[in-house]
## 1
Amino acid sequence: MADDTVALFGASGVIGQGVARALQAQGRSYRVVGRSAQGLRREYGADPKAEIVAWNPEEPASIRAAARGVRTLIYMVGVNYWQFHLHPVLMRRTLDAAIAEGVERVVLIGTVYPYGLPRTERVTEAHPREPNSYKGRMRKEQEDLLLAADAAGSIKGTILRLPDFYGPGTDRSFLYRAFAGALKGKRAGLVGPLDAPHEFVFVKDVGPVVTALMEEPRAYGHFWNLAGAGVTTQRQMVQDIYAQAGSPAKMMTMGKGMVRFAGLFDPFMRELVEMYYLLTNPVLMDDSALKALLGTVYKTPYAEGIRQTLVEMREQQAKAHPAAVPATT
């Protein structure tokens, strides 16, 4: 691999796949790192520019091997929603390995969680990081490790914060059940309230921003907001999803009490309870600093993102159940 090797730690997720597509479009070689070699081969095996490396994040030697010969490390390592205590643990191990191997820079894909409850209608990077949730505290600890390493001169670090995302493959999105329901003409079970302001980013828009950010020297030592394609509401998005799918909108809303009840049987829903504030006190990000830094930040309009998601989900369903999906013209 070349000296400017980019390694995608957590490459099997939808954001990792999007960053890989952006690198492919640039004709770049890259390394994909994940826990399952088989899963990585399934996703990237057909691309001759992709180097596949399986790692065990429990073993420092394995992490060092995954970081060896890398210039830029894009960190997108996911954990189960009920295992957020692992975020700072895995970041510490990865940073130790990256510094030992001479990695020059790390880009962390972050969230709005460390901001906590929004104090302003629009949240800039100057907003205090005062998380009001355990998950927010773990994410802040993760960020602080990287920012401290950057401040110490051990490695360059930057953080890109994302809002909720949607698009093909995002089965943990608030909107996923709406897409799935609309394609079947069935009711979607949603987590509400549905009429509070909200923003979403289309997953395919993230990759080009990440690759532009990693090449910008002024990005390091700071964190950056990437806002959605505009302020909308879940209801507006769901109505458009059903309309484009050609089905009348049908939805059932779960309030906080119902989410808590569902959590008795579903660990993801149990952990969602403390993040419910994001639906009632939304963190709407201001990304004017990112636009000033990069010049261009393209965002797919919601209607077009919905259209593309429906097309790809139909194609996936057709492959999985060839006889069950009627042909469309």
## 2
Amino acid sequence: MLWVALAVNLAMFVVELTAGLLSGSVSLLADGIDFAGDAANYAISLAVVGLALHWRARTALLKGVTMAAFGLWVIGQAIWHWVSGVVPDAPVMGVVGVMALAANAGVAAMLYRYREGDSNMRSVWICSRNDAYSNLAVLAAAAGVFGTGSSLPDIAVACVMAGLALHGSYTVIRHAVSELRHSSPERNPTAQEEPAG
């Protein structure tokens, strides 16, 4: 499942990044960068899925920090687009937004059973869930830009996406830190952990 998620996210990264640059949409650009971050997260998850819990928790902690950095980057991009006054291409936003929603909804459904798993797998599901929400917001932004001729809906959605990333980051980091406290061999050298299957 992680291999499928990785392939889907790499493909959509190329599509959304290109569309974001061509259309002038900060929400599409942000979503495209998020796809790249998720692809990296899935690759990391594949690398550690069979390792002990404390290693998976450390990886999840790194992913949480990455999600926070993404959220802050999106806020910076939204401010820059507000200052520059770029109005994005609404039809391009709509078409690509539908493609991205289909991709993310499929991945999130596939990973749904892992939503209460360890911090590593839970972070994978959180990324997919947040992406599906972001895609719905991009579609709303496309409708808003089309109806108003203003970049404000696009900028507002970018800020929503940043908020989702920051909230997801907090959840993942909190869970990972909790697991590290209870499973780290440095703190509990006698603990016997079984690798994840």
## 3
Amino acid sequence: MSNISVLLPTAATSDPDGLQRAHRSITEQTIPPAEIILVTNQPLTEDIETTISGLVNTHSATEHEHFPDAQGLGGVLQEGLKRCSEPFVARMDADDISHPERFAAQLPVLTETESDIVGSHLAEFREDSETPERTREVPISHGEISEWMPWRCPLNHPTTMFDREVVLNVGGYRDFPMMEDWDLWARCLAAGLQFRNIDQILVRAKINNLGDRRGGVDYAKAEIQMARRLRELGIASRRDTLQHLCLRIPPRLLSSNTREVIYQTFVR
């Protein structure tokens, strides 16, 4: 066992088979975590509730925490983060698969360097996890990550592992719909925390139609709110804000098919 907690939010719409696969990829790590915290804030379907109960009953390190009053993904992640008892927290989603060496690669970065938050590249697949369709590559060094932060989220959220205490000290997660992770990383950067991405694919994520999921007026509004937040934190200049809005708002308002093409071409 290790000094790692895994924080894994689960929704009513999560696929039971996908959740079991995600959980198995955690328990089969070469450095297994001390605990796996499954967090929910929605009424669950019978299938997903049965799956969660089975994982809790058959794996002693797995717990299920339900927070019905938590607001949105940010709210349930914050409650789950406070519930984690280990000094380092690894994020995953219910449709992700972690490489067996993921924790072995990330933990030394947090314990042997000045980095507080570490992520990696992420591969996306639709049906066969062994044949991903594309890779969401991210900048590696702290300097490169800082350069991306004003106009593009520089970490793949489900790949991250971080120092629990320092992240809680900057306020942790907030209810910031569709931008929970970028909001958190921006506040961490403004507080002087150190970032790094490992130049490897350590997580594979199942996707559906990203054009539908990443578009619409609500997403455009979230981009505007995020741009405003980056300015308030002193991270983004006026030029950064203009670049952010010009590059990211128009695709949100296009048709889903067009957004899918753009996403596949430019990756996020």
